Amino acid sequence: MNTTANNAFETLGLEPRFDLDGKLLAERHRTLSGKLHPDRYSGRPASERRMALDRAIQVNEAYRQLRDPVRRAESLLTAMGVPVGEQKEPKASPSLLMEMMEVRESLDEARQQKDLDRVGALGEEMRGREEAIMRRLSAMFSEAGDDPDQLKAALPILGELRYVRRFFEELEAIEEALMDA
Amino acid sequence: MAYSDKVIEHYENPRNVGTLDKDDASVGTGLVGAPACGDVMRLQIKVNDEGVIEDAKFKTFGCGSAIASSSLATEWIKGKTIDEAETIKNTAIVEELNLPPVKIHCSVLAEDAIKSAIADFRAKREAKKELAGADEEQPATPPAE
Question: Looking at beta carbons, which residues of chain B come within 8 Å of A85?
């Protein structure tokens, strides 16, 4: 994670928090991008144009990062001194792995049978799971404040969210492929 | 990301994809996951009386490198004793598949999966030994196939 990543909230002038108002985030991104648009810098010195461009790239990256709940949680944790990443986080519980293996297998079966309804139903089920995880994460972040020890407790839940998001990535790819077929 | 030819080869023709009966006493199951990307990998071994891995199967939901790593792992452990299989290092997988640094965690996952399958098999064998009688020194014989 680089420094730009750590300051995503700062870049967009937002208070660092997990519960982020999506509308406010989009609005900030739009306003800042508008101000930094190359058209506004035509006729300006090359160094200024380059700076505006760099800043626009930074704003876009910060927006992408904060829009994604997994990356948003990661930036918050990193900023508060809780290391995140493959080797730094606790391993997933066997029950979570078993659950994820099972849903991925069901999804794969539905793909092979080209059963778009079943794919949709699996997605619905997982949607509920995702919402519950988001609620738990929100509660944990607001209770933990900036206490790194309490924040560490959010890591396994963040792990769950990653597995769930991965499932949705797969599901969306399958839906696309089946609808094109 | 450019995959090496060997990764593509395993990805397109994965060896030993499938499932073994996890309730079979001679089968060990390893289930591992990569928390950073949400990939899941299951590796199973079937071990005979001599402690030799007769069969190995895997199922991986993940990127090409994760699939190739587990495919290669099953290929390598077949015919080996569990003690030999346990010494396989992820670095050997990295070398064989030419994995780039960002994909090293896929080989770690495969090594973990082998170890976890072996641990599961050993735990089952121990549990059976205890059932057969804790004082007996000779290992319990597995059920006839």
Answer: 36
Q: Which pLDDT value is given to residue B58?
A: 97
**ipTM over the 0.95 cut-off:** no
CATH of residue B82:
3.90.1010.10
User: What is the helix (H) or strand (E) element at residue A103, kind and residue range?
Assistant: helix A94-112
Class of domain A3-67: mainly alpha
User: Which residue from B33, B42, B105 is facing A92, i.e. has the nearest CB?
Assistant: B33
28-47 in chain B: CB under 8 A from chain A: 31-40, 42
A interface with B, Cβ–Cβ below 8 Å: 85-86, 89-92, 94, 96-98, 100-101, 104-105, 108, 159, 162-167, 170
Mutate to test the interface with A, among B42, B61, B67, B103 (most CBs of A within 10 A): B61
Contacts of A159 in chain B (CB under 8 A): 35
Fold entry, domain A94-180: Monooxygenase (1.20.1280)
Q: Which long-range contacts (CB under 8 A, 24 or more apart) does A4-7 make?
A: A4/A58, A4/A61, A4/A62, A5/A61, A5/A65, A5/A75, A5/A78, A6/A75, A6/A78, A6/A79, A7/A62
With CA atoms as reference, the chain A residue closest to B61 would be: A104
pLDDT in tens, chain A (181 residues): 344 445 899 999 998 899 998 999 999 999 999 999 888 888 888 888 899 999 999 999 999 999 999 999 998 998 888 888 767 788 888 999 999 999 999 999 999 999 999 999 999 999 999 999 999 999 999 998 888 888 999 999 999 999 999 999 999 999 999 988 7
Report the number of distinct structural domains present in chain B: 1
Which pair of tokens denotes residue A58?
Answer: 């930074």
Closest-CA residue to A29 (of A84, A81, A67): A67
